[in-house]
Amino acid sequence: MALRTTLNAMLGVKHPILLAPMDIVADARLTLAVAEAGGFGFLGGGYGDEAWLRRELTELAGPARERGLPFGAGFITWSLARKPELLDIALDHGAGAIWLSFGDPAIFATRIRAAGAKLICQVQTEAMAKACLDAGADILVAQGAEAGGHGVSRGTLTLVPAVADLCGPRVPVVAAGGIGDGRGLAACLMLGAAGVALGTRFYATVEAAGFQAAKQRIVGAGGDDSMRSVVFDISRRNVWPAPFTGRCLRNAHLERWAGRELDLMRSIDQEGPRYAAARAAGDFEIAAVIAGEAAALIHDIPKAADVVARMIDTASELLRDGADHLG
Ligand SMILES: Cc1cc2nc3c(=O)[nH]c(=O)nc-3n(C[C@H](O)[C@H](O)[C@H](O)COP(=O)(O)O)c2cc1C
Q: Which of 59, 70, 82 is nearest to 19 (CA)?
């Protein structure tokens, strides 16, 4: 079974399913697994740890080249602006697409185009979509507030078609935020997307980096257990500018500090080290598991290839049977 959209040819993939860049979690192993399954993987460059990036790119680039599999790298734009040399490292290792989120991509567009790579921009509002189109984005990822990790407040259901209208036929739109199974994929295609990007669903897979306990928490959580806040950013001393908040699973630490963010800031000399120790130890009653509302749809920890195959099968079936609704 295969689903074909404009994205397949543009990215050279069998399926219009993208692994969203997830800081640390989307490492070489997961990126390669998604590519081998026929999707397109983005290594999670996150906040720009150069040693991590070089190691993972080295691990990824060789096998990808041997097997003729394309791959990309994703960066948090405002963080990349502080270490722009990381972009060259990713391009020099053969990244065929660069995904930029959260900030103005214009300063990097020329370099990315000169390398022959695609510029993928993740946006959370229509205004951001317009700015990224002006910067020459090849693909826009419309990320709704259901998404795990940082984001804003617009829901996927209206953001995707609104961004598709702005893009027109030339620039494909990828939907992200709350997509956990083939129902989401089929629905997003109907909204005007040419494909989907998954974060939370791929986090709970065998190949994802990260603690097994974190993956188990995603499996055990419902959508109501996922909440947007600034608590984990304050706790790890990495406060983002408005309008961005971060979506993670509720735990004892979040329940304790949500609504008391100023108190948390005042207590950061004690809470910061406590939080860092919990992150290192995998204590997820204090450290956050970054995951979105798609947790409601995740009940197992399969291989990434199974996620892709199941989504394609379900979406194909739904799209085929869709005609039954016609009177
Ligand atoms: C664990 C985790 C880490 C993330 N890290 C990043 C990141 O480093 N850069 C980025 O652009 N987006 C990041 N995101 C957001 C994803 O790119 C994507 O928009 C989101 O996961 C899609 O929604 P979903 O989680 O409902 O699939 C992260 C998401 C998760 C779940």
A: 70
